[in-house]
Amino acid sequence: QLQLVESGGGLVQPGGSLRLSCAASGFTLDYYAIGWFRQAPGKEREKISCISSSDGSTYYADSVKGRFTISRDNAKNTLYLHMNSLKPEDTAVYYCAAAYLGYCNVYDTYAYWGQGTQVTVSS
């Protein structure tokens, strides 16, 4: 069974940092583009970052560029989202998703999704 499980969310003060993890089981992340998405209450889901399967190229939305970093550890079959300088507007449920042989923002249809992890940025 193909499965993605996010973890690492929580409550953090503005300016703080968190690291989200996305662990895969039932398949090897090497062959998948992995995207990070978020959805805040009352807002549409937003793609915030992606790492391609072939060359590891990355994408960041303007809203997180310079603050968030995506990385993958193929040995652990896990992907990470390092989030720094967090702002209240980063509060959302964060999801990871996988696209087989995907290339960020070119051909990345995400067929597999995690259950999400809540990130709350508040003082």
How do the helices and strands line up, and which of them pair or pack?
Layout: E1 3-7, E2 10-12, E3 18-25, E4 32-39, E5 46-51, E6 58-60, E7 68-73, E8 78-83, E9 92-100, E10 112-113, E11 117-121
Parallel strand pairs: 2-11
Antiparallel strand pairs: 1-3, 3-8, 4-5, 4-9, 5-6, 7-8, 9-10, 9-11
Protein traits:
mainly beta, seven-stranded mixed sheet, four-stranded antiparallel sheet, globular
Indicate the low-confidence ranges by residue numbers. none
Tell me the overall shape. globular
On the 0 to 100 scale, the average pLDDT is 95
- What value does the Rg take, in angstroms? 13 Å
**Euclidean distance between termini CA atoms:** 40 Å
Q: How much β-strand is present in the residues? A: over 45%
H and E string: EEEEEEEEEEE
| Class based on secondary structure composition and strand pairing | mainly beta
Helical content stands at: under 10%
Helix count, per DSSP?
0
- Summarize the main sheet: 7 strands, mixed
DSSP, total strands:
11
Report on this structure.
Strand 4 and strand 5 (46-51) form a beta hairpin. Strands 2, 4, 5, 6, 9, 10 and 11 form a 7-stranded mixed sheet that branches. The chain has no helices and 11 strands. The chain is globular. It has 123 residues and is mostly beta strands.
